[in-house]
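Technical note accompanying the year-one report. For the benefit of new consortium partners, we illustrate the data format agreed upon in the data management plan: each record pairs a sequence with a structure-token string. No post-processing was applied to the example shown here.
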Amino acid sequence: MRKLTPKQISPFVRGANYATMPPFDLGGVNYAFQLFYAFSGKGKGRVNENCFDLKPGLIAVYGPGDEFRFHVCGDDTITFATICFSWEALDAPRVAVANRVVREVNEDYWRLADPKVSIAGLPEIPFVLELPAKERQKTEELLRDTGNSWRKSTNPLRYLRHKAALLEIIYNLMKFYHSTSGHIEHPVIHRFREYIEGHYFEELNRSTISRFIGISQGYLTALLRKELNTNVTAYLTAIRMRNAMELLQYSNLSVKEIAAAVGFRDYNYFVIRFRQLHGKPPGAMRLQKT
């Protein structure tokens, strides 16, 4: 396996997607490398023997020979993005199969698959990381733009844009991994994050959250201040605003319906807080649909 340094990385995007899907079951083995990112929703994922929950902020990177499966069942839906890419320029036969998925690996597969590499500054591929809320915005913008423009644009310059976007995502992952490697998140903070992600749309307060986690309100307050430099109200509001922005841009719900859907019982308060955060009213953030 070759080890590439950041200066040697020159990826080429073979395919990209951004979608919201109902229950599905996807799996196989890619000829090239693949990035999978979950924006919202929940399900189950597996890469080789590593099983994990699909949740907002989860990013998985896997490559040739890695068996993957993503599964969403019941009434759940999930919004996700994928980028299929190679780390280096390839010959024509490999380019032709780079965005394909097979069910089994044989000699012909390895003749056409990308060479296996590792990247200095990243975990050994395949790897799975969970980005905290404060790290997600730029990565999500890049993934959403790449997935949407891949389907809609035929401009040859799109490949340069996609390459630049993927490079920025890779470098952001390197910085995040470097800053967090060696630091294990406090288990109470982990349970707190998981609970908020699954219940932010409900009527929550510090009492109900701390009771569910099984600690005192005072200890939760102190731990959030120490570990995340925030408090329950600020963190909960940030998660609700993040999901409100997603619905504003990619749903047909009214602003009032969105406010209620993400947990704001007072519509006027939602508008005021949204203006404070973004400098514009919620309606001004809607994407122009063509």
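Partners are asked to follow this layout when depositing records. The longest helix spans residues 158-180.
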